[in-house]
């Protein structure tokens, strides 16, 4: 396992990608032409390969995307248009570069960038807080 250089906390930015569950990545191999990979899994894989510091795929209980109707996640399955959310954490520069590098796959994606404004610090052991 490789270690990634950590972005300073004050440089952290969150990029949330929202897209329908049935979204597929662009076919890049022969077998993909038969069944293209799910966009969520593909973006997780390329984020890791690109050295993005952290990636999380959220399971959405209920929600809707622009122009779609409200859907609910059920154990038996969910609507093909049910929303998914992939969150990437890294520096704004790296996240913008990632978006540009994978622009062809982002046509079904709504991207929202959040700057982390207040750095969180962990208190030193033995220190007191609130004084």
Q: How would you characterize the overall build of this protein?
A:
This protein has a four-stranded antiparallel sheet. A two-stranded antiparallel ribbon has the order 3-4. The chain has helices at 30-34, 39-49, 92-101; strands at residues 12-20, 54-58, 62-63, 71-72, 83-91, 110-115. It has one domain (23-115). It is 20% helix and 25% strand. The mean pLDDT is 82. It is of the alpha+beta class and 131 residues long. The radius of gyration is 18 Å and the shape is globular. It contains three helices and six strands. The protein starts with 11 loop residues before the first strand and ends in a 16-residue tail after the last strand.
List keywords for this structure.
131 residues; alpha+beta; 4-stranded antiparallel sheet; two-stranded antiparallel ribbon; 3 helices; 20% helix; 25% strand; globular
Secondary-structure element pattern, one letter each: EHHEEEEHE
| Major sheet characteristics | 4 strands, antiparallel
Tally of discrete structural domains: 1
Compute the number of helices: 3
The mean pLDDT is 82
Summarize the topology.
Layout (H helix, E strand, L loop, with lengths): L11 E9 L9 H5 L4 H11 L4 E5 L3 E2 L7 E2 L10 E9 H10 L8 E6 L16
Antiparallel strand pairs: 1-5, 1-6, 2-5, 3-4
